[in-house]
Amino acid sequence: MLKKTALICCGWLCIALGALGAFLPLLPTTPFLLLASGCFMRGSPRLNHWLNHHPRFGPVLQNWHQHGAISPMVKKRANVMIVLSFFISICLVPQLWHKGLLCVVMTILLVWFNRLPVRDNPENNYSS
């Protein structure tokens, strides 16, 4: 019972952080939603169902769970946020080796992230 309660609390915390990430440029949304989904899968099937069918968060999670892919818009936004957050960090750290290490980590992260498959969410396809 304690494990389920901890997973549910962790899931809600991740949802709160993910929701903040939609508005704050340096906080990512998708990783927190994936973590919340994982917590809810193990802690509460009802909350997991709610999250996966949420009008805002559901399509991102379903695309990931069903296809292991992200939408082009999510990829574009994430790339901008990764570069922006690392650029700010590089400007703020004083030592040159820190700057170099941040550049290496950013490069590895961007290479890994941009190798993820891209697939449009069916809900996002509007034909006129």
TrEMBL record:
Subcellular location: Cell inner membrane
A Pfam family the protein falls into: DUF454
Signal peptide limits: none
A cellular component term, taken from the record's GO annotations: plasma membrane
Mode of membrane association: Multi-pass membrane protein
Membrane-spanning parts: 80-113
Keywords for this protein: Cell inner membrane, Cell membrane, Membrane, Transmembrane, Transmembrane helix
Protein name stated in the entry: Inner membrane protein
